[in-house]
Specification:
Elements lengths: L1 H16 L3 H20 L5 H15 L2 H14 L12 H31 L3 H25 L5
Helix pairs in contact: 2-3, 2-4, 2-5, 3-5, 3-6, 4-6, 5-6
Protein name: Dehydrogenase
């Protein structure tokens, strides 16, 4: 059953996002979110887990907004290859920065987890995760602004 659902989702993604740069930007963000959630799986300290899970929820709320940006960009300037449509270069940059910032947020979460386990303190690491998560949100907001896509 899951195999068919994945195939249907893949066809839907191809139709809405294309197979070019907008699909890649969306998928990069989704993979970063998956990585962040993988880090949560091994957190043993309840306080650290709760903080990191809160950030995970905030980041997860950005995924539909990233998808909407990518769908809108694909509709305005379709991409089926690696060439970034010049008219939306800044949008692509903002989405790429968001995906990269999400990956560094996952790294910061891993470090906060290790600090909490090793030293029993994670407050500085958690503050770093918070700051990095804010950067992700700012980049998504910038992409929405450039596309005039209303945020959620």
């Amino acid at each position: 059953m899951a195999l068919f659902a994945a195939a249907r989702q893949g066809r839907k993604d191809d139709a809405e996002l294309g197979t070019g740069v907008w699909r890649r930007a969306h998928d990069r963000f989704r993979r970063g979110l998956d990585r962040y959630h993988q880090i949560l799986e091994g957190v043993e300290d309840d306080a650290v887990y709760n903080e990191l899970a809160g950030f995970a929820n905030q980041l997860a709320q950005l995924l539909p907004r990233v998808r909407e940006c990518c769908v809108t960009a694909q509709a305005q300037h379709p991409s089926e290859g690696l060439d970034i449509p010049g008219a939306l270069l800044q949008v692509h940059r903002a989405l790429s920065r968001a995906g990269n910032a999400l990956a560094t947020t996952a790294e910061a979460a891993a470090m906060a987890r290790l600090d909490g386990e090793r030293w029993g303190i994670a407050s500085a690491g958690l503050e770093n995760v918070r700051r990095r998560a804010e950067v992700v949100a700012e980049d998504v907001i910038e992409a929405e602004r450039l596309l005039s896509v209303p945020g959620q």
